[in-house]
Amino acid sequence: MGRIVFSIIFLFLISINPLFSQNLPLVPYPRKVATSDKYFEFNKNTVIVFSKGMEKEASYLKEEFKFRFGIEIKSLEETARVKSNFIHLYTKADSVQSKYRLEVNPQYIDICGSDAAGVFYGVQTLLQLIPFNKETKIQSVEIEDYPGFSWRGMHLDCSRHFFTVNEVKRYIDYLAMYKMNVFHWHLTDDQGWRIEIKKYPLLTKISSYRKETLIGRPSAKDEYDGKPYGGFYTQEQIKDIVRYASDRHITVVPEIEMPGHSMAVLAAYPNFSCKGGKFETATSWGVFEDVLCAGNDSVFKFLEGVMDEVCDLFPGKYIHIGGDECPKDRWHNCSKCQARMKSEGLKDEHELQSYFIQRIEKYINKKGKQIIGWDEILEGGLAPNATVMSWRGEQGGVEAAKQKHFVVMTPGHPCYLDHYQYKDVENEPLAIGGYNPLEDVYAYNPVPKELSQEDAKYIYGAQGNVWTEYIPTFKQVEYMALPRMAALAEVLWTYDPNRDYASFIQRLKIQTQILDKLGVNYCNRFKN
Ligand code: ACM
Ligand code: ZN
Fold first, then answer.
1. In a mutational test of the pocket of ligand 1, which residue from 184, 258, 325, 432 has the highest number of ligand atoms less than 8 Å from its CB?
2. Cα of 324 to ligand 1 centre, how many Å?
3. Which of 147, 198, 381, 447 is deepest in the core (most CB within 10 A)?
4. Which of 57, 145, 189, 455 is catalytic?
């Protein structure tokens, strides 16, 4: 007995640093791991026993067993009668959120979370431990684990290209697999409005369609495909996706772009522009001069109507209001915008943008929600309660944190996953440009060194962005997002200053067998 206790402690000690326990194919790697050479063997008589409130986690695990092994295992609410061959899911209060302890021993598997999210993450770790090769044995382990950052995000642009409900759900599945917890859903942009708003049916009738799409990159001789392109999510579909994500402990943050990136809105409502006239949903990429007029009160009425429905559809705390890349020329030459600047005492168009965002923030705050926006919302003065998403490098995030505003880091390098992942671009699908190899994503540190310890607390975490101008299919989304999402997941979850790329690659090679089984088109060049 004494020897067993000693060897468990010994194993625990030698494997306390992830660098020393590379034998488990886990991504992201847990904080504490101890293994032994015993095994739990599951079969059709294995039972899931769950405590009250863990029904969803239990049914998720049950479904995964069915899918992976064709075994229909039973699940029952907690009872003392089951003595062995069970997987126990339960919670025990702890000051650390989303924490779990996973124990596998020859008699049973125990997953104890500090909350339901913790139990879910324990389930994910267990699933990564179960190989797909018809093996029914799981090595005995003791794992203790919790996340390093509270915002572990992935973004998907469904405006430039549209992805079906099932594809969006698959994307959410990949987030869940890697313990990511925020899905930033980019729903509106110049090239298409993708969310049904019942009050404004023209948004789905007109703004969700474009007449054709640019082929390749913009050039002196632009060529278009001549094919109408469109699509949107009904409110019922949105609720379904939000529920699906919530079952996986993922919050959906919808993005409704303003005041720029609004050509699709102007196609339906030209009077919301500064100049009026005729507009069409954009058919090529870039930044467009025509934006929502900041001097026109009906623009704000419209946005408030949109926000009424958006806030009802998304139960999370955050609404992303865009705020990026809004050229100011139209405002500069618009009598209504200039009159607004005068009446509000605003000294330039940057302050007018700040007025725009603050006015929307007030409305959203009244509905009990918070805004998050791209780092341009710093220009002209940050809205009082805004969270900043730093994309033009890290400077915006640093500035916001110093102003005691929360920050999500998503700098172009290395967090834009629409950028190339290999230098030999002729062997890669056409991408927007850039170079963000897997290794750079893995090396990322979301907390800039120049921040004091106090200000560093404002860094919520980071996010990978998948813009889809050059990503027309979901297969290509998979290729761009994976495995770089897995690297970012390990940065954000494990947050180990001694992280080891070689160990990550070794584990990833085994771990991607699951992606192979699922038929995911991930980029497998890291195996070469
Ligand atoms: C952005 O990439 N325009 C936020
Ligand atoms: Zn105007």
1. 325
2. 6
3. 147
4. 189
pLDDT in tens, the chain (528 residues): 344 443 444 444 444 444 445 579 999 999 999 999 999 999 989 999 999 999 999 999 999 989 888 889 999 998 667 889 999 999 999 999 999 999 999 999 999 999 999 999 999 999 999 876 667 899 999 999 999 999 999 999 999 999 999 999 999 999 999 999 999 999 999 999 999 999 999 999 999 999 999 999 999 999 999 999 999 999 999 999 999 999 999 999 999 999 999 999 999 999 999 999 999 999 999 999 999 999 999 999 999 999 999 999 999 999 999 999 999 999 999 999 999 999 999 999 999 999 999 999 999 999 999 999 999 999 999 999 999 999 999 999 999 999 999 999 999 999 999 999 999 999 999 999 999 999 999 999 999 999 999 999 999 999 999 999 999 999 999 999 999 999 999 999 999 888 999 999 999 999 999 999 899 999 999 999
Cβ atoms of 417 and 484 closer than 8 Å: yes
Rg of the chain, C-alpha, whole Å = 25
Which is nearest to 525 in space by CA: 437, 416, 432? 437
What residues are in contact with ligand 1 under a 6 Å CB criterion?
324-325, 374, 391
Q: What angle do CA 129, 86, 73 make, to 5 degrees?
A: 80
Picking from 416, 395, 405, the residue whose alpha carbon sits closest to that of residue 460 is: 405
Ligand nearest to the CA of 274: 2
Please report the atom of ligand 1 found closest to the CA of residue 391: 4
- The structure tokens listed for 358 are 């603050």
Superfamily of domain 151-527: Glycosidases (3.20.20.80)
Atom of ligand 1 nearest to the CA of 389: 4
Q: Which residue's CA lies nearest to atom 2 of ligand 1?
A: 391
> 293 CA to middle of ligand 2, Å?
4
- Distance (Å) from CA 286 to ligand 1 centroid: 10
Annotated catalytic, 186? no
Give catalytic status of residue 261 as yes or no: yes
Q: Give me the count of residues in the chain.
A: 528
Classify 32-145 by CATH class. alpha beta
Matching residue, tokens 């110049």: 190
Identified catalytic residue from 261, 320, 405, 419:
261
Q: CA-CA distance, 415 to 484, in Å (whole number)?
A: 9
Is 225 an active-site residue? no
Measured in Å, residue 268 CA sits from the centre of ligand 2 at: 17
Is-same-fold flag (32-145; 151-527)?
no
Every domain of the chain and the residues it spans: 32-145, 151-527
